[in-house]
Specification:
This protein folds into 2 domains: 209 residues, P-loop containing nucleotide triphosphate hydrolases (Rossmann fold), CATH 3.40.50; 104 residues, Magnesium chelatase subunit I, C-Terminal domain (Helicase, Ruva Protein, domain 3, Orthogonal Bundle). A hairpin with a 5-residue loop joins β3 and β4. The two termini are 31 Å apart. The longest helix has 17 residues. The radius of gyration is 21 Å and the shape is globular. It has a 5-stranded parallel β-sheet with strand order 2-5-8-1-9. It has 326 residues and is an alpha/beta fold.
Length: 326
């Protein structure tokens, strides 16, 4: 896996030609890409979320698509629609005009500004990686990733994403506001008339090949057991649940959260030069994999409890095999 570690570093370095800071964020996005998962990016407007996705598509060498979500966006606007056209014989026939989702890397900008009807259409695309319309099934190109941006819920004109759709995202990554040094560097890089030239470091076919290789990385039973205990600990009805979980959490993580932990940990382990997954790899991605899968109850929302704080306490409480031995 040394070649993958080198490739991962090259991808980050190339993206940092255009993106200032966000070292951890770039790493998390790339981990999701090589795990075959979708990513939800949350942050206030103007932090470069859209630019990040555009830069990523150039560096990984895949075809990008974009959907700008608005309240009047309809499912046909993103999936495609049947139109009447003439064939080679001059006869009128129905053709399926593919929508913007038929790309390798789909940017869904401000996803929580789309209505629930359009969000439901995206749900099938993300889960099935196919579009069904007019009795026909159209498979999306491989690899296929959705990177969606989301504004904070307190902003005007947003529709909360349903829990079922949130669960389809492998990671939820928060985009922080840049610090002083980063802001100064942004002013230097982005106020001129030239943009950095981005080079494609890999291709879609290489990404698929690496995904299959990483899926073979072994996960020992104690590590899988630790990840499973972490998932169970997010449920308030479980015996021995944390007081904070019992008091503030309505629903814990689904089994899909466990899948995200294992798949992401495999990539994280490979990035760090390991040949098998450890509990440290599970812990490293626990926040991005679980923060959108732990749903607060009314009291938790009213007291503005931070899910990240709950996950941190769970990581402190759930002992790894090494901690138990000590």
């Amino acid at each position: 896996m040394s070649s993958f570690r080198t490739l991962f570093g090259q991808l980050k370095t190339e993206m940092q030609k255009a993106i200032v800071g966000y070292d951890g964020l770039l790493g998390d996005v790339l981990v999701a890409i090589f795990s075959g998962g979708h990513v939800l990016l949350e942050g206030v407007p103007g932090l470069g979320k859209t630019f990040l996705v555009r830069t990523l598509s150039q560096v990984v060498g895949v075809e990008p698509g974009r959907v700008q979500c608005t309240p009047d966006l309809m499912p046909a606007d993103i999936l495609g629609t049947h139109i009447v056209n003439e064939n080679e014989q001059g006869r009128r026939v129905m053709f399926f005009e593919k929508g913007p989702v038929f790309k390798n890397l789909l940017l869904v900008d401000e996803i929580n500004r789309a209505t629930p009807k359009t969000q439901a259409a995206l749900l099938e695309v993300m889960q099935e990686r196919a579009v069904t319309t007019g009795g026909e099934r159209h498979t999306l190109p491989e690899p296929f990733f959705v990177l969606a941006t989301q504004n904070p819920m307190e902003m005007e004109g947003t529709y909360p994403l349903p829990e079922a759709q949130l669960d389809r995202f492998m990671f939820k990554i928060r985009v922080p506001f840049p610090d002083l040094d980063s802001l100064v560097e942004i002013s230097r890089r982005t106020t001129g008339f030239s943009e950095p030239t981005m080079n494609a470091i890999c291709t879609g076919a290489e990404i698929l090949k690496i995904q299959k290789e990483l899926a073979q990385m072994p996960v020992a039973d104690p590590v899988a057991h630790y990840a499973s205990r972490l998932i169970l600990a997010t449920h308030p009805e479980q015996p021995g649940a944390l007081p904070e979980v019992k008091r503030f959490v309505a629903y814990g993580s689904s089994p899909r959260g466990l899948q995200s932990l294992i798949r992401g940990a495999r990539v994280w382990a490979a990035v760090n030069g390991a040949t098998s997954v450890s509990t440290d790899d599970i812990r490293a991605i626990a926040h991005v994999a679980l923060r959108h899968r732990i749903i607060l109850n009314f009291e938790g929302e009213a007291q503005q409890v931070k899910v990240d704080d709950i996950i941190t306490k769970l990581l402190e409480q759930i002992k790894t095999p090494a901690m138990q031995a000590a």
